[in-house]
Design goal:
By secondary structure, this protein is of the alpha+beta class. The chain has 21 helices and 29 strands. The chain is about 35% helix and about 25% strand.
């Protein structure tokens, strides 16, 4: 491998292996994604079988977004979609941006660690299932790619994130095609010539008959894009037909009118090297299709070019949750899609513009722009917000004529000021900037204006969500103990994780209660529900338990008294609870349960098992219920782990098996630091992703000194 100063040479072994993997699997399109250094984004490193323009919306894919490449990386598994229908079912956002008949697989590229994801696509003509042999070819290809990436890291090759992806032709490398070679390729694909396009859409060959029908000479058309050199083909529907042919690798046909009244039929025949196009006057005998199969889903909506990006980004904006999610999406996807190098996203609040996120600027520059009045004349932001009309400045001189100080502070060379307006109300402003002068085409302005409306709605929803989240978080923290008391003889640690769905608030609670110098109590519980009512009842239960515990009541008495309180309140919500009384003088632990999962006991030597505590009914059901007491010896080194069912309940997993698995994780955990032990248990239980229930975890270890 050569020095870092020659990145093309550095990538040659990887590119060759990637191209060989695509060829061996028979895929028509391949893409290799590598994880960014901060492991938050998958970056497209190399592409094969399609032009780079197709991949613009997916050059950087946030790891948290729902997509085949991200799921394959996160779960370290192969993701297969054998048809457009399956893709639409499993990944609707991806299917919306790729409305073509196809099959695809995303496979993790894993060696000593996970490096990224290999994406392969086939026409829908291939079988909808994958054989074990095919799966083995893909997995072995991924392993070889991982070894090459490991070698590259050893030689100091930097991360590809931030660099444009390399584009390879199918095979071992890019092949410059002459008109004569293109004509030969064309003849292989279709008897009798008309014209030929490469995979990027450029004319590479035209017959004299094609030139006559199109009304141009070969010299005027070769190397050009049809929708640019032939204005009457400048319609998204026609460009979309070309896209459909490239991606689906299936024949496509459409009809267009060459002014004033020459109607022509275009028949596109694609393969891995390009597209053969047969042009005949409408009503003439069309050429035969090469195969009887033709997908019914070949009809696609009239979108093309940047309209694809708009559709993809619009779908992404509907899934953002908080303000930071909006900032990350604009920075990671909208900025690259529009070729911008700078971003400032500001929200309007109390008459001022508060910068909530930025990219491509120094902190000193942002400090000068922070807190400007909504009607500022320092930059175009005030005028854009006042009128609701975007402002575009193609170069610094154009900006300097109207806003002389703004260009000096910004240090950029072109700007788009996009007001974020909802129902006439300014939400904020999004500023995209460029390091070089940039002429904004009418299409770009239309896309940016449309995106501004979508960003405004997403930002408004996100601000509302963040406000509710902060409110819920504050309420939850107020109801849970801020600090657990220091109890001589006990090491204590606890953790609460809210559910990731709903209001981010729940009814799980825990507490440690000091009962003089010779005893303490620990309690954990779970009120059903994830709303304000559940949180309010949780506060009442915790207060009731605390009050009865400090009176010196036994565990069954504490639960009896709390149960009577709940049945009198008649909240229509039930509560599970596990209460433990630790008697340091008598060296005994007494426990009582109201329908709660059993605590885990770990003894010196890492002997770990669930405690066999006979449970009573849930609190709030029967005012006369009994809660049997179970006693165990309190020995030095003994550890008790209390938890709520959000830690163990998983769809399709038996509850006893889940508890046994948790006990196994506890046996293997290092107990020198209880907070790290909790981190270990939570990671093994896979609580980092989506949680449908909140989780509470309380760990106590007796050191024998109490």
């Amino acid at each position: 491998m050569t020095s870092l100063g020659d990145p093309v040479a550095d990538s040659e072994p990887l590119d060759a292996m990637f191209a060989e993997t695509v060829r061996r699997t028979g895929a028509s399109i391949g893409a290799l994604y590598l994880i960014s250094p901060d492991e938050s984004v998958l970056c497209l490193d190399v592409l094969c079988g399609a032009p780079a323009e197709f991949a613009v919306p997916w050059t950087r894919v946030p790891l948290a977004s729902p997509a085949p490449v991200t799921d394959a990386f996160r779960d370290d598994r192969m993701v297969w979609a054998g048809s457009q229908g399956q893709l639409a079912h499993d990944y609707p956002r991806t299917a919306l941006a790729l409305p073509y008949p196809l099959a695809l697989v995303a496979a993790p590229v894993t060696g000593i660690r996970r490096w990224g994801t290999l994406l392969l696509m086939w026409p829908a003509t291939r079988p909808s299932h994958m054989t074990q042999r095919e799966r083995g070819h893909i997995q072995s290809g991924c392993r070889r790619l991982a070894r090459l990436l490991e070698d590259a890291v050893e030689h100091g090759k930097p991360s590809p994130c931030g660099e444009p992806p390399r584009v390879l032709a199918a095979g071992t490398g890019h092949r410059l095609v002459s008109p004569a070679e293109a004509a030969a390729d064309f003849a292989e694909r279709l008897p009798g010539g008309s014209c030929s396009l490469d995979l990027e859409g450029h004319f590479t060959y035209l017959s004299s008959g094609a030139c006559a029908l199109l009304g141009r000479t070969a010299g005027q058309l070769l190397g050009t894009l049809p929708w640019q050199s032939l204005r009457w083909l400048d319609d998204p529907a026609y460009e979309d037909s070309y896209r459909a042919a490239v991606i689906s690798r299936e024949p496509v046909a459409f009809t267009a009118c060459r002014p004033p009244d020459h109607w022509l039929d275009f028949h596109l025949f694609p393969d891995a090297s390009g597209i053969s196009v047969r042009i005949v006057p409408t009503g003439a005998e069309p050429p035969p299709w090469p195969a009887p199969h033709r997908s019914e889903s070949n009809a696609t909506p009239a979108r093309a070019g940047r309209l694809y990006q708009l559709t993809h980004l619009a779908a992404a904006l509907t899934e953002v949750v908080g303000v930071q999610d909006v900032i990350d999406l604009v920075a990671d996807q909208i900025m690259p899609a529009l070729g911008a190098q700078g971003l400032v996203l500001s929200t309007a609040d109390a008459g001022r513009l508060h910068i909530t996120g930025y990219r491509g600027y120094t902190a000193e520059t942002i400090e000068q722009l922070q807190g400007l009045p909504v009607g500022t004349t320092f930059t175009p932001a005030g005028h854009s917000l006042d009128t609701g009309i975007p402002a575009f400045f193609a170069d610094a001189e154009e900006m300097r004529r109207v806003y002389p100080e703004a260009s000096r502070v910004s240090g950029k060379q072109a700007w788009a000021f996009l007001p974020l307006i909802i129902s006439g109300r300014p939400v904020g402003i999004c500023i995209l900037s460029y390091d070089r002068p940039h002429a904004f085409t009418a299409e770009e302005r239309a896309v940016m204006t449309s995106l501004a409306g979508l960003v405004a709605q997403a930002l408004d929803r996100a601000r509302l969500y963040d406000t509710k989240h902060e409110l819920a978080h504050g309420l939850q923290q107020a109801l849970l103990p801020r600090l657990l008391p220091a109890v001589g003889g006990l090491r204590v640690a606890a953790r609460y994780l809210p559910a990731t769905r709903g209001m981010d608030i729940g009814g799980d609670f825990y507490d440690v209660i000091r009962l003089g110098d010779t005893a303490a109590a620990a309690v954990i519980g779970d009120v059903q529900g994830h709303n304000v009512a559940a949180a309010a009842l949780m506060g009442q239960v915790r207060t009731g338990v605390h009050a009865h515990a400090t009176l010196g009541s036994t565990p069954d008495q504490v639960l009896n008294a709390t149960n009577r309180l709940l049945t009198e309140l008649a909240p229509d919500l039930f509560t599970s609870c596990l209460y433990a009384h630790l008697d340091f003088a008598g060296r005994r632990v007494s426990l009582a349960s109201a329908g709660h999962p059993p605590a885990l006991l770990r003894l010196p030597g890492r002997v770990t098992r669930p405690l066999d505590v006979v449970p009573g009914p849930l609190l709030g059901i029967d005012p006369d219920a009994d809660f049997p007491v179970t006693e165990i010896p309190l020995t030095p080194g003994l550890m008790l782990v209390f938890y709520t069912d959000g830690l163990i309940e998983m769809p399709g997993v038996d509850l006893d098996d889940a508890i046994s698995r948790l006990a196994g994780h506890l046996a293997d955990a290092d107990d020198r630091d209880l907070d790290r032990l909790i981190d270990d248990l939570l990671s093994k239980a896979d609580t980092a992703g989506q949680r449908i229930d909140d989780v509470a975890l309380l760990v106590l270890q007796y050191d024998g000194q109490g």
